[in-house]
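Before the break, one more example. Copy the sequence into your notebook; we will annotate it together after we see the structure.
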Amino acid sequence: MDYFIVVVTTLAGLYFHGWLYLRIRRWMDRDLALSLAEGNEDKRAYMLERLEEARIQKIKRRDLGTWLAQRAQDYPDARRT
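Here is what the structure looks like once it is written out:
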C-alpha cells in the first residue's frame, strides 16, 4: 500500500508540474502578443488572432517572437502614413 501512495502522489505531482509548465508557456506567449499591441485595443485583438494563427501553423517557439513582430508591423494602423 505504501508503494501505491508513493506512485499516485508522484504521478499527480508530475501531471501538475506539466500542466503548470504548459500554462505558463501560454501566458508568456499571450503576454508577448499583447506587448506588441502597444495598448491599442484593435491591435490587441489582431495580435491575439495572429497568436492563434501561429498555433495552427505550428510556428516553433523560438521563432514566435520574430513571427509576431512581423505580423505586428503588418497591422493596418490608420495612424500610420
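The mean pLDDT is 92. The two ends are 72 Å apart (CA to CA). Try to locate both features in your own notes.
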